[in-house]
Q: What sequence folds into this?
């Protein structure tokens, strides 16, 4: 197998704000009418989620204008939606998704390489990697035509086939493109957004201390004449959006921010470009915690009882999630409450129903476990995949949290239970199998549940939305890393600029944070605290990404002053393990999330893990 | 790539190999002089640096330690790209890990970097009683493929410093020292030098 053919996956996948920007302006500069169409292919699709039926189909073109080439991919608008053999369910992507994923006009000069994938089964696709190392999601060519495309390109630009990988085509050394500059000037939009945030924070400083929402109202002081200046904000405020949909009370918190943004729009509209840097520098100096609410003590039994009706239903799950978001759980409550947070139990289930479910699920677990336990040695000899999986699990469980008394010592039965659950899971989800990092997720779950079957089902529930972290193609990781990069760009443009010039925009130094949700970064108790906060999905389901930004911001000065390159940065980030103040980081992350508002959520591509089901929000 | 200064140079080194073969343990033994019985798995990658002295030249190794599971294979090129040296680690008590080591060798050979110094490390020598991969087999494989082979124990520290030393000596622009394709170092003078110069 061509091992290096998979190397594309270490590029982050670019699909969000850049494209929104292009949607807003570059299309004006490069309109189709004035361009010559060099190549066109219909029914080329992108897949925002793992769900193939939700792919977005569109038209792929190479355009030429003023001797410069551009690549575009525009989704079909739903009413003219071309039914392909694949789109039988006539999935209609939302306008937002279509705008989000459109590739309006990317100059070929910005493209570093194109990976061609022609799997024996399934559709052939390409992955376009930009000079920055970022990449667009795969473009599937349902009617073929990739070879044609490459041949066509060869007529116009220099393409070199990589000597290391026959499927990699390098496009660099393309003649400098005059239009590239005009496109990169679009960066202005991000500068604007960050500047706005800066003004926002600065004004907020003397006024309030975040204790409650009333004080936020004071912030709305300077009136809000709607502005016509910057359409991105208007775009942001008008969007209905996951933060708000999921959580009306969070909307309250966001509202003053939105009003201020409009105030700022007025100011910004009349501000010259030159002053941005000045304002922006103030952003970094503002202590973030002014926005985060004071954190509460953990929820304890007495208060927990007030959330339940006489038959054990959680009456107001939103209020419960909010309470846990701000304070976490007393340890003895975790066993009971995590099952709700993880989605193993429904909030409206009764004590009786939960007890029944427990018994039912235990039977189911035993059946699943028996599937591999009954494989004889003889059978195993001819079952390489089973042997390999079992051996991976064996290698990892013996080195999972062994310093904890719960897992310490020779022949510790809890280590065997870890093993059995992980092997059973690799049968339950045979396609995914076992991946390093799953052991890190399971360990605290088993520690909390103290029961093999219950731990298994809670782990299953968690994997329902975090499995994409472990996909072979690393797609789930890429979309999260990309979202962090976009959030940093929005919330801290000087850090973004630094990381860009240090060639660190792939954000791989955050890989461990995201893959196992900071499991290795905190003491065990704090890991449990953090996870229950994250699993409330209270303000946003992507709170962990804001946490990444918060921590990076916290150490930004050191990172930049010491001019860390990728190596140093990775070493530094790994070395932060055990040194991060969780409560402060949570407050900072909340501040950032509130501050970013809709614009922040727009930085996060649809389908970015965790992908939640409606009943969890 | 290895870059030379007046009398010191830097060299990027990457560790590759099956999960649980002992990559992180070898690095931690070399860099910190420590050994953890239950060294946790590496998620993503880890970076270390350590300097050794070879004759008049110091070599600062910038070491990338990678995740071993096949699942994370696609991340590896990011770490081995531009490396001056690679240590491919396998567990002498596990034949599959040797098979996997050979795959890593092939992959690196395909990268076409002729200057890459490659070492094959048969780790867990302290468990020699449970050996599944014979020294001769690994030795002859190494010779055929132009690597040098050393059996190590991160646990007992046996041959760990030697491994890095041998690499330092083989780096281009390091002092020319006659060395054949593969040798198992068991003599100790080197060990003393190693301890004094690199285990701060």
A:
């Amino acid at each position: 197998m061509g091992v290096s053919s998979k190397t594309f996956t270490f590029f982050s996948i670019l699909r969000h704000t850049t494209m929104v920007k292009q949607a807003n302006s570059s299309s004006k500069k490069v309109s189709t009418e004035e361009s010559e169409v060099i190549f066109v292919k219909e029914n080329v699709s992108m897949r925002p989620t793992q769900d193939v039926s939700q792919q977005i189909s569109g038209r792929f073109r190479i355009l030429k204008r003023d001797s410069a080439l551009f690549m575009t991919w525009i989704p079909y608008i739903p009413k003219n939606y071309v039914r392909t053999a694949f789109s039988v369910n006539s999935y209609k992507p939302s306008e937002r998704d279509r705008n989000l994923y459109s590739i309006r006009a990317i100059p070929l000069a910005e493209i570093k390489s194109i990976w061609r994938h022609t799997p024996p089964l399934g559709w052939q696709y390409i992955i376009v990697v930009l000079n920055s190392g970022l990449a667009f999601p795969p473009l599937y060519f349902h009617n073929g035509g990739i070879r044609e495309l490459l041949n066509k390109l060869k007529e116009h630009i220099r393409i070199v086939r990589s000597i290391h990988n026959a499927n990699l085509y390098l496009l660099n050394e393309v003649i400098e493109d005059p239009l590239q500059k005009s496109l990169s000037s679009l960066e202005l939009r991000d500068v604007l957004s960050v500047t706005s945030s800066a003004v926002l924070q600065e004004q907020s400083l003397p006024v309030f201390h975040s204790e409650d929402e009333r004080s936020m109202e004071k912030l709305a002081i300077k009136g809000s004449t709607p502005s016509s200046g910057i359409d991105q904000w208007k775009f942001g405020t008008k969007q209905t959006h996951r933060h708000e949909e999921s959580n009306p009370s969070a909307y309250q918190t966001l509202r003053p921010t939105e009003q201020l943004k409009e105030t700022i729009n007025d100011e910004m509209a009349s501000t010259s470009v030159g002053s941005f840097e000045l304002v922006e520098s103030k952003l970094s100096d503002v202590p973030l915690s002014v926005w985060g609410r004071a954190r509460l003590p953990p929820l304890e039994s007495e208060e927990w009882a007030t959330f339940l009706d006489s038959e054990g239903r959680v009456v107001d799950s939103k209020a419960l999630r909010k309470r846990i978001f701000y304070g976490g759980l007393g340890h003895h409550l975790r066993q009971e409450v995590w099952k709700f947070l993880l989605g193993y139990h429904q909030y409206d289930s009764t004590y009786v129903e939960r007890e029944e479910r427990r018994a039912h699920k235990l039977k189911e677990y035993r059946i699943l476990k028996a599937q591999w336990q009954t494989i004889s040695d003889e059978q195993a000899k001819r079952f390489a995949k089973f042997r390999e999986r079992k051996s991976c699990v064996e290698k990892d469980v013996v080195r999972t949290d062994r310093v904890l008394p719960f897992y310490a010592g020779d022949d510790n039965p809890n280590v065997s239970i870890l093993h059995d659950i992980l092997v059973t899971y690799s049968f339950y989800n045979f396609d995914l199998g076992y991946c390093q990092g799953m052991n890190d997720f399971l360990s605290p779950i088993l520690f909390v549940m103290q029961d093999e079957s219950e731990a298994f089902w809670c782990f299953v529930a968690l994997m329902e939305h975090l499995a994409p972290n472990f996909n072979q193609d690393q797609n789930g990781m890429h979309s999260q890393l990309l979202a962090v990069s976009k959030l940093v760009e929005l919330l801290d443009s000087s850090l973004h600029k630094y990381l860009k010039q240090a060639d660190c925009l792939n954000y791989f130094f955050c890989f461990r944070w995201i893959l196992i949700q900071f499991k290795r970064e905190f003491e065990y108790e704090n890991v449990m605290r953090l996870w229950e906060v994250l699993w409330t999905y209270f303000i946003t389901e992507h709170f962990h990404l804001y946490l990444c930004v918060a921590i990076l911001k916290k150490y930004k000065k050191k990172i930049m002053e010491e001019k860390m390159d990728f190596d140093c940065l990775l070493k530094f980030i790994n070395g932060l393990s055990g040194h991060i103040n969780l409560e402060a980081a949570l407050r900072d992350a909340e501040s950032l999330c509130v501050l970013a508002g809709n614009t922040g959520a727009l930085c996060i591509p649809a389908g970015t893990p965790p992908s939640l089901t409606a009943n969890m929000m | 790539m290895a870059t030379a200064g007046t009398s010191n140079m830097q060299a990027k080194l990457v560790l590759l190999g099956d999960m649980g073969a002992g990559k992180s343990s070898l690095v931690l033994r070399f860099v910190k002089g420590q050994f953890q019985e239950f060294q946790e798995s590496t998620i993503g990658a880890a970076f270390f640096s350590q300097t050794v002295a070879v004759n008049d030249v110091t070599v600062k190794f910038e070491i990338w330690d990678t995740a071993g599971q096949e699942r994370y294979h696609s991340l590896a090129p990011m770490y081995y790209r531009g490396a001056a040296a690679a240590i491919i680690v396998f567990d002498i008590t596990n034949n599959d890990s040797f098979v996997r080591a050979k795959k890593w060798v092939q992959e690196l050979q395909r990268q076409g970097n002729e200057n890459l110094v490659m070492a094959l490390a048969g780790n867990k020598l302290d468990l020699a009683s449970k050996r599944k991969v014979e020294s001769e087999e690994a030795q002859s494989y190494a010779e055929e493929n132009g690597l040098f082979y050393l059996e190590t124990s991160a646990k007992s520290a046996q041959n760990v410093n030697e491994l890095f030393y041998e690499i330092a000596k083989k780096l281009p622009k390091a002092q020319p020292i006659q060395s054949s394709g593969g040798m198992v170092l068991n003599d100790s003078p080197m060990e003393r030098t190693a301890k004094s110069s690199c285990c701060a």
Observations:
- Residues 1-30, 80-89, 174-290 of chain A have pLDDT under 50 and may be disordered.
- Residues 68 and 177 of chain A are 6 Å apart (CA to CA).
- Chain A is about 50% helix and 10% strand.
- The first strand of chain A starts at residue 36 and ends at 46.
